[in-house]
Write a structure and sequence with these properties.
Number of helices: 28
CATH architecture of one domain: Sandwich
Strand content: 15-25%
CATH topology of one domain: Immunoglobulin-like
Oligomer: single chain
Amino acid sequence: MATTENKTSFQRLPCLVTPINYHIRLAPDFKKFTFEGSQSIDLKVNESTAEIVLNSDKLTIENGADQCNVKLPNDNKTINIKEIKYNVEEETATLILAEKLVPGMNAILNLEFSGELDKNLTGFYKSRYIGPDGKERFSAVTQFEPTYARKAFPCWDEPAHKATFDITLVVPVSDNDDKMVALSNMSVKEENRDSQKRRVVKFDRTPIMSTYLVAFVIGEYDYIETRSKHGVLVRVYTPLQKSEQGRFALDVAARSLDFYTDYFQIPFPLSKLDLIAISDFSAGAMENWGLVTYREVCLLVDPSHTSTSRKQSISLTVAHELAHQWFGNLVTMEWWTHLWLNEGFAMFMEYLCVDHLFPDFMIWKQFVSDTFLSAMNLDSLANSHPIEIPVGHPSEVEEIFDDISYNKGACINRMLYHYIGDENFRKGMKLYLSRHSYKNTQTEDLWNALEEASQKPVRRMMTTWTKQKGYPVVTVNCQGSNRLELTQEKFNSDGQLSDADKTMLWAVPVQVITAKDVQKPQAEILLEKRVETLELGSLIDLQKEWIKLNPFAMATYRVQYQQEDLFIRLLEEGIGQQKLDPADRLNLINDLYSMTLAGRKSSDVLFQAIGSFRNECEYSVWTVMNVILSKYNQLLYGYDFHPKFVEFGTKLITQKVFGEIGWDPKPSEPHLKTLLRPLLINRLVTFEYPEVMKKCHEAFDDHVAKRKSIPADLRSAVYRAMSSQITDEIWEKIMKLHDEAELQEEQMRIQSALGSVKKPEFIERVLKFAISDKVRSQDTIFVVASVACNPSGRRTAWEFFISNYELFKSRYDVGFLGNALIKSLIENFQTEEMAHQIEDFFRVNPNKGWDRSIQQSIETVRLNAALMARDTEKLAKFFQ
């Protein structure tokens, strides 16, 4: 089958003519689910040409002189379009003109077109929802990133082709007309009625911007509003009669706007900012300038039903999209190769913002356990990619909206921030944003600004992180009592290095903390050579004391300690006596875990080290421990010593931390304690710990009988417990809860929990439920994924996918969801036989939009198989 290196032939749009301003009028029909459109585009003619090439996908452009022509206002002349040639593969339309355009002339391209409101959550599409009266309603909404504006109107749909936009929306006549809203990037300029009594809403002209940031919404919504301290009108639009569920997001949005305005020292350039909850939405949210769209679950908070983790997630998502209003919208990457300039920086800034707004979240600790580690895990695969990767065809663009562009991008930004300091970082950000406002940039433009501000070798250092795939492992070898030999080489998940890998070097900011002071580094070096020596000073004795590299996991590398006794001291004192910061504790065990997966250490050594965490009570550390326990639960399922592994994991949790955290929340307990409780209970549900299973049954019975509601934080665990011991009676009760739930978060909790069923007939029932009308298309993959993550159901989930391949392909062949589905289906298998079977299937049934995810997932299956071949006997001996 094709690998990710086999690129589809692709050429960017020619620049013979370029757009300056679009006048766009769109009129959706909610009965036929179609739309009519017209537009006049002011053009700049750069070279003599008789052809205009622009993007158009699944649109019908009227080919008549009255509807489609080029006007030359200065000459009072019209040039007809003789022919329209469509290239379906390239998603372009070529307009063949009757005469040539001449450079320097003013030209206006007039087009009339029509299309369908998309079914696949891209372009201009329909969203279904149930109104307060119980009746089905529809709205028309947009999702244009990365390359879907061309499905709504013919355009130059590339980031560098910035223009201004005058949007006019025609609102269908409704029996609830006073609740029908029309929204776009800008404020309403004027409104009137046409001959059909439809409202015609015109919006102010936008700033210069890229097509993927244009947005419009027509539907029934309520809203609440406030003003930021800098005077920006902020509104949150919600489904009817749910406006108060937008209150938390409204507060976060207004405060985030103020934070970024003060941090960047550049005002938000629009007069208003709308945030809107969309019922059907593929991604979590989209940063359209002035009109940010969200999944309902990523915006709405109901105090009775919203979990603490979801509320925290909403704050991060809102902060992320608002960071984009500067990073991405005001200054935009020139091409998708530089996507990380948008996403990596927005992800780093969301943590910086939320830490400012909610210091009690201790969000930077969670950054290490969530963002840092997920980036490292993906980036050690052979089928990873550099942060900056050449992309061309739209199908390739989708593949890089992944943990490399987002999470690794955020990690190297955090590393750079720490390296140059907050003051220099702020100066550099202001310089970059001011210098390139309303323009397009490449990565080098950012490095230039930060280097100018900090007077440090930013470009030299950071190029090693963006241009190369992967990251290094630094091996530490003690030389005498106070000298370290540091050696860097590329870290690969399979433990093998190619000839090309052996030549790779990074500029690694290495810092060292010692047992004497775990907060302040005692030595540091920018490691740029293969091997360097670092002097620690006479106050440290490596024969007796321990050290740790990469304090707080600030830099993007792994560490291997050559001396066994040094590592044992680290475990005994740093972990066992908890002298290390939580970020260092989790970093230490995750590095060991990764070394184990790569064959540098064995699994029995890993679990001996895990035993050192018997006193661990920190949420961020347990997040990593949970990942490790989950991985081995998948790998060891079916082996005769699997029950002993479950016993080991259960004892690790129950001997101290669960006794302290308990089932019931404590008054005014810290935020991280509130997050730790459901994590532990969910793990104990997976291990079927009798005490917890009994509590879950009691809580479920009380909840169904409406005697006492299950706390929102514990509902996922309770629903999973009941699903794991499902009966027809329990199924009916769960379905009733699902059907009556008004909050999407509650429905999604139930849907995902159903993946825990173990009886074969119920596994089939859950999978059929996943593709039924009861589950939104955007949520289907999470139901299927939950079954695939259940060792009892993963084979059935894969076979179900094969049987329904055409359905899944038609739904998810474009967008982010298909890649998420592929990974969840494949990654937990552990035999070479399954790797071959999966390869064979996709060789016959290729999908280029999923290709990178397929390759990464098959590689993970082979890594699983290699691990089990190496370590099965050692694990059996350890647990028995």
